[in-house]
Amino acid sequence: MEQVTRAPKIRLGINIDHVATLRNARGGVLPDPIRAAQLAADAGADNITAHLREDRRHIRDEDIARLLAEVDCPLNMEMAATDEMTGIALAAKPPWTCLVPERRQERTTEGGLDVVAQHNALAPVVASLADAGIQVSLFIGAERAQIEAAARLDVPAIEIHTGGWCDAIAEGRKADAEAEWQAIVDGAAYAHSLGLEVHAGHGLNYVTAEKISTIPQIVELNIGHFLVGEAVFVGLGESIRRIRAAMDRGRDSLRLGEGGRVAS
């Protein structure tokens, strides 16, 4: 008789970038993104994500220093694969970095890294971070070629960009949403088969976070903008507790047989 167990709990990373966006829109020091990170940790976050952009539009250098010094929750520092950001990461030594594409003209990250085309540029950055004991993930689309390229760089993890799926759902493009969903499902399974830890994020809300938590190979979700928006209405701690509950509902719907297969 096949032994059936629950899938492991999925981790929740809270992105605090847009708390810093609100602070910077007015100037001064409030709202304090470090206080937001502390509230997130108290509400059930497993890690804190912060993207230090080239133009410092939200997170600032001093925010990274304070997050590492004052918050009892691991930091995942999102960054472009540039000399400047690599130097900052090597000096700060966050537990995790996530390499992301970055353009000054974009409002938010618009897609995943093209690891296939940028392999030679990414390799020394990944190597230097790894040599310093910093775990590295790559923010990529769910395409098989990108996943294979990430595996060749010997990173421990990837983060699948979920924005296309979430946008298609929000815009009522059912066929596109189904295609994007299948790509995420297939990509997560393939990445797992190559030994990569699989994370996911971008555009997730209560509904989509619950659904994507049913993919057994995904072990972490990173969510930010939606929760900061919800905080206006219900408070940041409550919005995080609600997303945590949604993820747990999705995860609890899974029963795993031997070898991590979804049992019928």
UniProtKB/TrEMBL annotation:
<keyword id="KW-0808">Transferase</keyword>
<feature type="binding site">
    <location>
        <begin position="224"/>
        <end position="225"/>
    </location>
    <ligand>
        <name>3-amino-2-oxopropyl phosphate</name>
    </ligand>
</feature>
<feature type="active site" description="Proton acceptor">
    <location>
        <position position="51"/>
    </location>
</feature>
<feature type="binding site">
    <location>
        <position position="15"/>
    </location>
    <ligand>
        <name>3-amino-2-oxopropyl phosphate</name>
    </ligand>
</feature>
<comment type="function">
    <text>Catalyzes the complicated ring closure reaction between the two acyclic compounds 1-deoxy-D-xylulose-5-phosphate (DXP) and 3-amino-2-oxopropyl phosphate (1-amino-acetone-3-phosphate or AAP) to form pyridoxine 5'-phosphate (PNP) and inorganic phosphate.</text>
</comment>
<dbReference type="GO" id="GO:0005829">
    <property type="term" value="C:cytosol"/>
</dbReference>
<comment type="subunit">
    <text>Homooctamer; tetramer of dimers.</text>
</comment>
<feature type="active site" description="Proton acceptor">
    <location>
        <position position="78"/>
    </location>
</feature>
<feature type="binding site">
    <location>
        <position position="108"/>
    </location>
    <ligand>
        <name>1-deoxy-D-xylulose 5-phosphate</name>
    </ligand>
</feature>
<dbReference type="GO" id="GO:0033856">
    <property type="term" value="F:pyridoxine 5'-phosphate synthase activity"/>
</dbReference>
<dbReference type="InterPro" id="IPR036130">
    <property type="entry name" value="Pyridoxine-5'_phos_synth"/>
</dbReference>
<dbReference type="InterPro" id="IPR004569">
    <property type="entry name" value="PyrdxlP_synth_PdxJ"/>
</dbReference>
<comment type="pathway">
    <text>Cofactor biosynthesis; pyridoxine 5'-phosphate biosynthesis; pyridoxine 5'-phosphate from D-erythrose 4-phosphate: step 5/5.</text>
</comment>
<protein>
    <recommendedName>
        <fullName>Pyridoxine 5'-phosphate synthase</fullName>
        <ecNumber>2.6.99.2</ecNumber>
    </recommendedName>
</protein>
<feature type="binding site">
    <location>
        <position position="203"/>
    </location>
    <ligand>
        <name>3-amino-2-oxopropyl phosphate</name>
    </ligand>
</feature>
<feature type="active site" description="Proton donor">
    <location>
        <position position="202"/>
    </location>
</feature>
<keyword id="KW-0664">Pyridoxine biosynthesis</keyword>
<dbReference type="GO" id="GO:0008615">
    <property type="term" value="P:pyridoxine biosynthetic process"/>
</dbReference>
<feature type="binding site">
    <location>
        <begin position="17"/>
        <end position="18"/>
    </location>
    <ligand>
        <name>1-deoxy-D-xylulose 5-phosphate</name>
    </ligand>
</feature>
<feature type="binding site">
    <location>
        <position position="58"/>
    </location>
    <ligand>
        <name>1-deoxy-D-xylulose 5-phosphate</name>
    </ligand>
</feature>
<feature type="binding site">
    <location>
        <position position="53"/>
    </location>
    <ligand>
        <name>1-deoxy-D-xylulose 5-phosphate</name>
    </ligand>
</feature>
<dbReference type="Pfam" id="PF03740">
    <property type="entry name" value="PdxJ"/>
</dbReference>
<dbReference type="InterPro" id="IPR013785">
    <property type="entry name" value="Aldolase_TIM"/>
</dbReference>
<feature type="site" description="Transition state stabilizer">
    <location>
        <position position="159"/>
    </location>
</feature>
<feature type="binding site">
    <location>
        <position position="26"/>
    </location>
    <ligand>
        <name>3-amino-2-oxopropyl phosphate</name>
    </ligand>
</feature>
<keyword id="KW-0963">Cytoplasm</keyword>
<comment type="similarity">
    <text>Belongs to the PNP synthase family.</text>
</comment>
